Amino acid sequence: MYSFKSKFSTTRRIIGLVLTVLMLKTGFAMGADAEAGSLQALIDEAIRSQKKELELPANTTYRLTKTLFISNARDFALKANNSTILMTVPGEALSISKSVNLQIKGLNVDYDPLPFTQGTVTSTAEDGTSLELVIHEGYPLLKPDMAAGVPRHFFDPKTRQWKQNSNFFNHAQLNISADGHKAKATFPQPQVDVKVGDLIAFDRRGLDRFAAVSIKKCSDVELQDVHIFAAPGLAFVGRHNKGRVTFRGVKIERGPKPVGATEERLLSSNADGVNFAYCRVGPILENCDFSYMGDDSLNVHGTFAPVLRIKSPTELIVALPRKPEDTWSSMEEGDEVISLEEGAFGVVGKSRLKMVDALPSREDVTLKEIAQCFAEYKNPTAPYTLYQITLTQPLPGIKRGQWLEFPSTGCPRFIVRNSYFHDHRARGLRIMACGGIVEGNRFERIGSSAIQAGPELKYWREAGWVRGLRIAKNQIRNIGFSGELLGPGSYNPGAIAVCIRNDKGTPPWPRGNEDIAIEENVIEDCPVSGIHAYGANRLIIRNNILRRVATQPSSESGKANQLYCQKAIDLDGVSNPEISGNEVRD
Fold first, then answer.
1. Is residue 199 a contact partner of residue 222, using CB atoms and an 8 Å limit?
2. Residue 391 and residue 356: Cα distance in Å, rounded?
3. 3-state DSSP call for residue 497?
């Protein structure tokens, strides 16, 4: 967990308070650049005095060496007037917590130095397993901690868009020159169609890990006309929110050219645009524009925990990685608890939650048991926490080895409307939540699926099954340039994909995705199926137009999972489908 205590000296506190009073009383404008401590003092004083609004001078840049906090705000608006918080160390730029009815408008977020670097390919090995590169002037030099392996991204030097078919997501090991300006990159598999002169970027998501903006334990927060130009990891992370968070007119885009640089930026955020989990209601995205992220535009998911012991029919011991945290804080008595079978993760039974308690001791559970449940465990001594789940009534057929899903805190009832998602590496929308609406959006030049619905229960252990989803009136074009989508390990071979990723990895698929409607969408130019679905029940596919899809029906896409994508609309393992009025052209 983060620790966010301010450590100003007594003198700085006094100076900050004096500045605050003067600025609030006189409307003193701080100019083009301002000291970040004064901004924190302004915000703290405005919240403490219960002011309804704080307006910043227009076009001001605040250079931060520490996270800026907005905490315990109520009925408060921050009008930034196109001002920028510029983070000068790798860390979280803005932390929003425990606030109700908060609006932030017209704020920009950027980093200097940038949390990624980029360069040009100067030579390539004949077998494609290595290349040499030089870093662009004005961009961060390669650091020794990047040598062991960092994600890389290839771009076309003419269009500066992601390079087609060459973006298999893997980590490059770097042999870095003494001055950090050059390197030889070695890859675990040959890089397809990479040439001298191509552009390459390396991100530090696994090293720095911070989101640019976090929103935690809040209700009714609105971000309007906020721009993210860079982020060490996620652009926005949301956790444990009990009320709605709205993104309206928010942009994630490549920022301005750095001082001294001759090349424009290649990346915006290193990872997802918006990643929300463990929230009682999902986010709203309206009229947003997200591009050039290193991962998905939107990821919404919930909690997924293994049953390690059964103390009684209504008392279960589960585990989660990491130290005790607030994963459960947004849960309430009476929330639905669903048990899933081991391996395939089909639904076994349902009950209701009474309470959750973190256990102070290890009981008789071993670290090895936990490590077997969570593939991301690298360190056998890494921390984990046991919890006791108390139910109102027994779960039918419950036994050790099953898993529990908690849909009430899986970001249900999210809305994505009239937004534009384009030019980035992974999926447009990664949906693992119930009761959502995806309507009237544009998706263009996305590396993997434009919209992927269904649980990620294998590596990431992200719940859950998707129920009650409507996907309608979206424009989807030029989808699937990433080599991963076309590979045999793909489990989502469609521009719109309804799927599951489980430990079993082969049919028969449990059909836990239910009541999904895919209607009146236009899908064009995709090497795999326009609509691909499995692991679903009561699926409606109606009045869609599909043009030039499944253009590579002989590809290897999905074959390792016994999936095939040879048709415009391809279903395998779907109960009670309703398919009508669809038009397939070219």
1. no
2. 9
3. strand
**Residue 382's pLDDT band (cuts 50, 70, 90):** low
- % of the chain surpassing 90 pLDDT: 80
- In the prediction, which pLDDT does 10 show? 38
First-last CA distance in the chain? 53
CA distance 154 to 425: 10
d(CA 500, CA 466): 10
Which residue, 252, 256, 251, is CA-closest to 224?
251
Query: DSSP E strands: which ranges in 2-99?
Result: 33-35, 53-55, 61-64, 68-71, 74-87, 94-97
Mean pLDDT (whole number) for 500-518? 96
**What ranges do the domains of the chain cover?**
10-113+220-291, 117-203, 306-315+338-407, 410-585
Domain 117-203 belongs in CATH node 3.40.630.30? no
Indicate whether 374 pLDDT > 70: yes
Residue 460's closest CA among 387, 375, 380? 375
User: Which tokens in the block code for residue 2?
Assistant: 């983060």
Q: Kindly tell me if the per-residue pLDDT of 309 is higher than 70.
A: yes
Run of H or E including 393:
none
Give the largest Cα separation in the chain, rounded. 72
Residue type, 223: L
What are 318-354's pLDDT values in tens digits?
998 877 777 888 999 999 999 999 999 999 999 999 9
Amino acid making up residue 34:
A
What is the rounded CA–CA span in Å between residue 79 and residue 73?
A: 14
pLDDT-derived band at 578, boundaries 50, 70, 90: very high
